[in-house]
Prior knowledge:
This protein is α/β, with parallel strands linked by helices. It is built from five helices and seven strands. Strand 5 (152-160), helix 3 and strand 6 (179-188) form a beta-alpha-beta unit. InterPro entries: Adenine_PRTase (IPR050120), PRTase-like (IPR029057), PRTase_dom (IPR000836).
Amino acid sequence: MPGWTLPGSTATRKYPVPGVDGTRGVPGWAASPRGCWGTQLWVPVVGCGHPAPPLSPQGLQDCVADLLQPFQGDAIDMVAGIDAMGFILGEQDAAHRRAQGAAAAAALRKGFLAIRKAGHLCVQTAAQPYSDYSGREKVMEVRTDAISPGLRILLVDQWVETGGTMRAAIELVERLGGVVAGVAAICMENSEGGKWIQERYKCSHCVPPRLQPLFDQHHFGWN
């Protein structure tokens, strides 16, 4: 189905970032009255590892609420988070993992499934090779006993850049007989891969349309 974002929700809700109230950053991205966290914390930083998750509990709740709003009333049986930042939107452990996907699962009162890079699951798995945003060849795995035919799964990740990682997750779910109920990410770039996903699946993200070109070009303003 066509890419879809609910007007008035993820397309218009704004979060405070540098550039507001005398700080540096993307111009005009005003603070939400509901939350206080920096979307820039979720921006991939090349060569610097993963960004830290947001520190504001209210901000995390607002982010998850925005991502899930388009799926309210939809049939969803499970939420799957993609290794590793896809875990960062539920229950944080000491390593700040298993928390966007797990938070979304908790909000929906559904189970959480981790889709992991190869070698981390000590059970029988299905594997899918893919190229990540940097062009590196990798392999993604999911346990074979977690997805039954017809199970409707919401896929969650931090960022869809080239779309290779998310597409591999989609292929794993569908190969095992599951149904992709939707795709949610903080940002979905309008790359060839990102468009492919949005044209075929119901999608949700947190970037307002007028700022999408800045995110597509990685012109965030806080570098």
